[in-house]
Amino acid sequence: MTISGIKIYGSDGELKKEISPEQAQIFYDQNNKSDWSLSPNERKIWDKYLNGRTLMDESYDPKPEPKPRAKPKRVIRNYTLTCKHCKKTVTIHNKKAVYCNRGCAYEAQKARQSKEKRSVKWRAKM
Ligand SMILES: [Zn+2]
To answer: Which of 1, 7, 8, 53 could pair covalently with 17 via S-S, beta carbons 3.0-4.6 A apart?
Structure first.
């Protein structure tokens, strides 16, 4: 919303004072301030704002929101891996990986499980 400038004339019709639209806007805002429902903290911020300060200058919130921490940059490293299953050498980004792909991981897990089953059977026979 914009407000046009205000011209104040004396009783003799002479221009006494001219208020620029910017000033008029400030007067209007100040007169209507009490109509707004501002929390005490918001009011504090608003008062500072009127004094030419902005939220960028300072934080007036007594309980400021925790600042989002800068995410650590994910460093993508290349690791050389010899797959435990197929023995292929691959370049991989996960340091902890032991298999070249999920397929190998799955196959290896299956193999391990059947081996475990076998060893259980074998022990059972003992
Ligand atoms: Zn593999």
So the answer is: 8
C-beta separation of 98 from 79 below 8 A: no
| Domain regions of the chain by residue span | 6-50, 79-125
Whether the full predicted model's pTM is greater than 0.90, yes or no, is no
- Cα(first)–Cα(last) distance of the chain, in Å? 91
Cα Dmax for the chain: 122
DSSP 52-99: T--TTT----SSPPPPPPPPPP-----EEEE-TTT--EEEES-TT--S
Question: How much distance in Å is there from the Cα of 88 to the middle of ligand 1?
Answer: 6
CA of 9 to the centre of ligand 1 (A): 90
How much distance in Å is there from the Cα of 42 to the middle of ligand 1? 60
Q: What is the pLDDT of residues 2-28, one digit of tens each?
A: 677 778 888 888 888 888 888 888 877
